[in-house]
UniProtKB/TrEMBL annotation:
Organism of this sequence: Mucor velutinosus
Feature: compositional bias, Low complexity: 298-307, 374-388
Segments forming domain HTH myb-type: 464-523
Bias (Acidic residues): 272-293, 320-334
InterPro entries per the UniProt record, alphabetical: Homeodomain-like_sf (IPR009057), Myb_dom (IPR017930), SANT/Myb (IPR001005)
Gene: SSU1
Gene3D superfamilies assigned to the protein according to its UniProt record, in alphabetical order: 1.10.246.220
Protein name: Plasma membrane sulfite pump involved in sulfite metabolism
Residue ranges of the region described as Disordered: 259-446
Length: 540
């Protein structure tokens, strides 16, 4: 057992190193410097902490072999431990390590046992759990969204591991549960399309509130008493909690933080930051649509409504079906129709070499002079229907167009004049074509991944990678040849089963390919086929 003085002295040294770690995190030092500072702290606290991430004050003092500590000594040790635990908490959160453990210990180690919690402390708590929710959603895209929400935002106070159950702490617990209910109800109302409609879990949000809380704790005027006094009032009403929650989901606020972070990065690495900002702009333009115009509308909705249909700035990707709407130019469409008409006339002449050229009067394409209104109306309707049908045919796939040409050619050969019976034949063909048209298959559902900035982006499909060719050993080729000799036919499954110990790394279908290649190789080199002759001449 260690003496009380040695324990306190060790904790004092650790507290100094903890301040160094916290300062490095707030000042955004290089990752290597922060890691080195924490490793020094970890080594210094090992004699009293062992391998524990956090340590209870009472258990530390109980290990001393001296007389019991006084109340002043307990209070002093409690402040030292709080400083050390805060450094451990901040380091692991910033490094995304032991995240779940740190979140569970939030009210015991990160936040002292206050009777009430500030706006920053509540927002940090919510952002930590939103980050865990985002991580689980990305890890299992098919998981039930409502179950994940209830997992990370349960409505039972005991699941948040509050430090104690004194009546003085009831106000703080009521604050947390009220905020949890608001967040949970809102997320559940959007559960069917949560990853696309709501932007949450941004790393920059956690970083902002964490840094603000560290600065608040490191201030020389920090009051660690449970009944502390702050300049601003504690958020306790439902409207105050809704405003607090809205700020977490406000896209303008998140974008502002991302811009500030990119600006800071550009000062340190100008060239790399320019490339990152260009990529971010392209992503936001292609996937986020007009989200800025919707943020103002949703701002008033959250602050005034208490229902579950509360609207928060949505962030919907553009063209969720992954296709672009293409509108052909009028000139291009006109030229296409002309070229197709010319091609059609040439096709008829080619199919019927003896057909003579048809005049405009015979083809009924002359001016309407002297034509009655009924004839003119019938010509107009026929022209409109032909135009519509040609557009339908233009949308057909290549294979359907080929079959249409064959049927039309056969129909034309069965008539004396290609013009006299053209309208009747064209109608019958198009009626048949309309029956063949089938609606296109819907595109596969898109998968989304919520990125560190809280924005949902489409997960690109996994590229198909050709497997590396598997080499055949001489022993495997001999086993394949012995199998062909035994069965005298292409019994690939039986051969694979017989020589499973040798051919186990190959599939039965690969045996056929290897036998085919081996026959070609032996024939080209003049080598006797021997057992592989049964591949060419199997015996029944």
């Amino acid at each position: 057992m260690k003496s009380k003085e040695s324990v306190i002295k060790t904790l004092e040294n650790c507290a100094v190193q903890a301040v160094s770690v916290l300062s490095s995190i707030v000042e955004k030092d290089a990752d290597a410097n922060i890691d080195d500072s924490y490793e020094e702290l970890k080594a210094s606290k090992h004699p009293v902490y062992d391998n524990s991430l956090f340590r209870n004050t009472s258990s530390l003092l109980s290990t001393s072999e001296d007389e019991p500590a006084s109340e002043e000594e307990k209070a002093f040790v409690k402040r030292l431990v709080a400083q050390i635990d805060l450094a451990s908490f901040a380091y692991h959160i910033s490094r995304n390590k032991e995240y779940q453990t740190c979140v569970n210990a939030y009210f015991q180690r990160a936040v002292p046992s206050f009777n009430k919690y500030t706006k920053n402390e509540i927002q940090l708590f919510l952002c930590l759990r939103l980050f865990l929710l985002r991580r689980d959603m990305n890890g299992d895209p098919d998981a039930n969204r409502t179950d994940l929400i209830n997992k990370h935002f349960p409505k039972k106070p005991k699941t948040y591991f509050f430090n104690d159950e004194f009546s003085e702490k009831e106000a703080g617990r009521r604050q947390i549960i009220m905020a949890v209910n608001i967040v949970s109800d809102f997320l559940c109302s959007k559960a069917s399309d949560l990853d696309k409609e709501v932007r949450f879990g941004a790393v920059v949000m956690v970083e902002k509130f964490l840094h603000e809380y560290i600065q608040y704790r490191m201030d020389e005027n920090f009051d660690c008493e449970p009944d502390r006094e702050i300049e601003q009032e504690f958020p306790e009403t439902e409207d105050e909690m809704k405003a607090l929650v809205y700020e977490i989901f406000n896209e303008d606020f998140i974008d502002k933080l991302n811009d500030e972070m990119s600006t800071n990065n550009s000062d340190a690495e100008p060239y790399a930051a320019e490339e990152d900002s260009e990529v971010d702009e392209e992503d936001s333009d292609s996937e986020n649509g007009d989200s800025e115009s919707e943020s103002d509308k949703s701002s008033s909705t959250l602050s005034t409504n208490n229902d579950s249909d509360t609207e928060i700035p949505a962030n919907l990707p553009v063209n969720e079906d992954g296709e672009e709407d293409e509108l052909p130019d009028e000139e291009e469409e006109e030229s296409t129709s002309k070229s197709r008409a010319t091609t059609s006339r040439h096709r008829i002449t080619d199919e019927q070499p003896g057909a003579r050229a048809v005049t405009a009067q015979e083809a009924d394409f002359s001016d309407d002079t002297g034509v009655g209104p009924s004839r003119r109306s019938s010509n107009a309707s026929t022209s409109y229907s032909n135009t519509t049908k040609s557009r339908r045919r233009r949308r057909l796939p290549h294979s359907s167009e080929q079959s249409l040409r064959k049927r039309r050619a056969l129909a034309d050969r069965g008539h004396i004049s290609p013009v006299s019976g053209g309208s009747t034949d064209d109608t019958s063909v198009n009626e048949h074509v309309e029956q063949e048209e089938t609606p296109p298959l819907p595109p596969p559902p898109l998968k989304f991944h919520i990125c560190d900035d809280g924005r949902a982006r489409v997960v690109p499909p996994v590229p198909k990678i050709r497997e590396k060719a598997q080499r055949w050993t001489e022993e495997e080729v001999q086993a394949l040849e012995e199998g062909l000799r035994y069965y005298k036919r292409n019994a690939w499954s039986s051969i694979h089963k017989m020589f499973k110990d040798v051919l186990g790394s190959h599939k039965p279908t690969q045996l056929k390919d290897k036998a085919k290649n081996e026959v070609k190789r032996r024939q080209s080199h003049g080598i006797p086929l021997e057992g592989f002759q049964y591949f060419l001449n199997p015996q029944k």
